[in-house]
């Protein structure tokens, strides 16, 4: 409670930093990010937006965990440097990291090792529509997966794949019930990185968990799927804000209205059709 009061009284740290940087003609920024990739759209997009508001010609580089690289490919107007030895949930020292990477810290006018978008750009909720850049070449990434073209393809992400917020999960028994009652014209494609739960091997189920990169998942959703059943996840947060034309129908399962895409409270930049039921799923 006291922390919230202090934050309301105190000047915004990012704005204070940027005002000083602008006054001192500082233009090169290095920001460290070792957290979730869902925050790329829901937080870091607006951090970049804010930096560009103050310093339009700013050069922004992110120092990131290696498995985040696909997500940062979508963040326009920025560069990134991969750190192979960073692990999620493990603290790091940015200056020690730069030394190990043989990168001179003097290349950057401003180095930020603890980015806090939930606080620094909280003002952007219900105001900023994140827009992630999709390169046309990414579409070809879906071609390596031989998904049927004469069926209704429903992508499913059955697990959130994090160590926290277990209330965001959806009971596995309901997925199994859905799969068992599916029409013969429907094929389910399981997406994600971890096979936390086992499902019966059926002709209507294609399990791609652990077999795709993030960009391949997004390419499959964009180019091969008719529906996407998703939890509150990083995949959803990125896909929802891709600046593309995508006719897929989306069903998102939420444990709270105060998180993720719902909390952002702005429309997607593409033409998603939001659905709240799975009846009448037929090939059109």
From TrEMBL:
Q: Which organism is it from?
A: marine sediment metagenome
Q: Which UniProt keywords apply?
A: Glycosyltransferase, Transferase
List the Gene3D superfamilies hit by this protein, alphabetically.
Glycogen Phosphorylase B
Query: One GO CC term of this entry?
Result: cytosol
A Gene Ontology molecular function term for this protein is: ADP-heptose-lipopolysaccharide heptosyltransferase activity
Descriptive protein name = Uncharacterized protein
Gene Ontology terms describing biological process: lipopolysaccharide core region biosynthetic process
């Amino acid at each position: 409670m006291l922390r919230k009061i202090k934050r309301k009284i105190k000047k915004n740290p990012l704005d204070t930093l940027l005002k000083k940087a602008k006054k001192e003609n500082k233009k090169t920024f290095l920001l460290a990010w070792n957290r979730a990739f869902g925050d790329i759209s829901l937080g870091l997009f607006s951090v970049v937006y804010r930096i560009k508001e103050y310093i339009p010609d700013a050069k922004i580089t992110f120092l990131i965990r290696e498995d985040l690289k696909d997500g940062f490919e979508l963040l326009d107007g920025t560069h990134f440097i991969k750190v192979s030895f960073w692990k999620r949930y493990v603290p790091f020292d940015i200056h020690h990291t730069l030394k190990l990477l043989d990168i001179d810290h003097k290349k950057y006018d401003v180095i930020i090792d603890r980015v806090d978008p939930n606080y620094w750009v909280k003002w952007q909720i219900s105001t900023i529509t994140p827009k992630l850049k999709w390169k046309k070449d990414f579409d070809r990434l879906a071609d390596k997966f031989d998904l049927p073209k004469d069926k209704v393809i429903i992508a499913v992400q059955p697990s959130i794949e994090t160590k926290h917020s277990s209330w965001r999960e959806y009971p596995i028994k309901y997925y199994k019930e859905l799969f068992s009652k599916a029409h013969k014209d429907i094929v389910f494609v399981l997406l994600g990185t971890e096979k936390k739960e086992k499902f019966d091997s059926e002709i209507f189920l294609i399990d791609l968990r652990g077999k795709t990169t993030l960009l391949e998942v997004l390419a499959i959703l964009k180019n091969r799927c008719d529906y996407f059943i998703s939890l509150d996840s990083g995949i959803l947060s990125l896909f929802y804000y891709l600046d593309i034309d995508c006719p897929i129908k989306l069903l998102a399962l939420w444990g709270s209205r105060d998180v993720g895409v719902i909390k952002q409270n702005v429309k997607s930049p593409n033409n998603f059709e939001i659905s709240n039921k799975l009846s009448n799923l037929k090939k059109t």
